[in-house]
Amino acid sequence: MLNWQRGYQQLLKLSFPAHLVISAFLRLTLICYAQIHDAKSTVPYTDIDYKVVTDGARFILDGGTPFARHTYRYSPIMAYIQIPNIMLHPVFGKLIYSLCDLLVGQLIYALVRLEAGEATTIKKKAIISACCWLYNPLTAVISTRGSGDSFTSLFVISCIYLLVKSKDQPSNYFAVFCAGLAHGFVIHLRLYPIFFSLAYYLCLSGGPIRNSIELIQRIVVPNKQQICLVLGTLIGFTVFTLTFYKIYGWQYLHESYFYHFVRKDVRHNFSLYFLMQYLNNSDAAEESTLFIKFLIMGPQLLLVVYLSVSFAQLRQTLPFCVFSLAFVIVTYNSVVTSQYFVWYLAVLPLCLTKFQLMSCSRCVFLLVLWICGQALWLLPAYLLEFKTWHTFNWIGLQGAVFFIINNYILTQLITNYDCKSFEITNKKRL
């Protein structure tokens, strides 16, 4: 115990640049290990999506379209990023995503200091918050496996940073416009950040919302900052989307966007809805598809609106609002994989200094509970994947358990989030 405390104190004494260097070394080590592992193991370390995007980059170099690669359903930008995988070395994309990891850590550090000030204790809190991302084994492994979620998270955090930074400068329209550009670009990359739009919009409304009429007024009659945000978002999204539409045509729109609304993904995953989709995977079940889509999206949309109105009224609480929204989006999604956890793990460190009402033992309990929820699911998933056992019902049950655990955790975090220093009216139900 004493050794652990001594190590913790030594960790705090390190400067933030030192943590960045250590984090970079750890990721380089994992990338090198991946090369050895993939060469000797039948179960690859590298994510299959990384190989798909690399194949898409190869098609681009050959003068074709990345969508010629079966299952390529991303923005063409991802394939362009990984062109050096073909021209230089196969790990180049992993280096880019690991660099994004470090940049996210830098933004977390800057944002915590920006909100709290320059005191020495605040610097320590900022370092601890950033380290929760930089030394998170899950995020480090996911980026070094070749997942591009850290690239997406970089622009989500950038948007939050620009919006929070402009809170004391009402005339700083350029920062808000740049936040809109980042938001539009990240929606182009992935669809899920579109659910943050209402929160971003409301945080620029000018203060707490007292009733439903005032809420409608602030949405219908935008101020100058809100107009700048909307314009930036539209430009950031349409410029890239229209450009690639002109290059790749309808196939780009279908594979990158529309496919995600109609797809049937019946492979085992953490989602509560996995078993329902698996049992409903037949031509005879087509009539119930719309009902299932509504059943999945309905609770998500209701919670997104409620959380946005409750926690996005001030820019100080915007990070927690975005975290809770991302948590809900992942938990209630029709498909949930480990990569999706990065969507909210990137924002969680921004909120850590506000959980002062929660004891350390309580935090540890919630973390262990979250890990156990995954571990319980991984056992039947392993038996299905590698032992070919028929464990679909077991996986469905564990998906439900994990869903309940996640909802309990979010409830605890909302309950213990310290709002006393902020003028929030979430106690006044609309």
UniProtKB/TrEMBL annotation:
InterPro entries in the cross-refs: PIG-M
Keywords: Endoplasmic reticulum, Glycosyltransferase, GPI-anchor biosynthesis, Membrane, Transferase, Transmembrane, Transmembrane helix
Protein location: Endoplasmic reticulum membrane
Topological relation to the membrane, as annotated: Multi-pass membrane protein
Membrane-spanning ranges: 150-166, 228-248, 290-311, 318-335, 341-357, 364-383, 389-410
Domain of life of the source: Eukaryota
UniProt key word Membrane: yes
UniProt-listed GO biological process terms: GPI anchor biosynthetic process
Short name of any one Pfam family annotated for the protein: Mannosyl_trans
Documented EC number(s): 2.4.1.-
GO terms assigned for molecular function: alpha-1,4-mannosyltransferase activity; GPI mannosyltransferase activity
GO cellular component, one term: endoplasmic reticulum membrane
Pathway(s) it belongs to: Glycolipid biosynthesis; glycosylphosphatidylinositol-anchor biosynthesis
Record carries keyword Lipid metabolism: no
Function description: Catalytic subunit of the glycosylphosphatidylinositol-mannosyltransferase I complex which catalyzes the transfer of the first mannose, via an alpha-1,4 bond from a dolichol-phosphate-mannose (Dol-P-Man) to the glucosaminyl acyl phosphatidylinositol (GlcN-(acyl)PI) intermediate to generate alpha-D-Man-(1->4)-alpha-D-GlcN-(1->6)-(1-radyl,2-acyl-sn-glycero-3-phospho)-2-acyl-inositol and participates in the sixth step of the glycosylphosphatidylinositol-anchor biosynthesis.
Family recorded in the similarity comment: Belongs to the PIGM family.
Protein's name in the database: GPI alpha-1,4-mannosyltransferase I, catalytic subunit
Origin species: Drosophila albomicans
Lineage: Eukaryota, Metazoa, Ecdysozoa, Arthropoda, Hexapoda
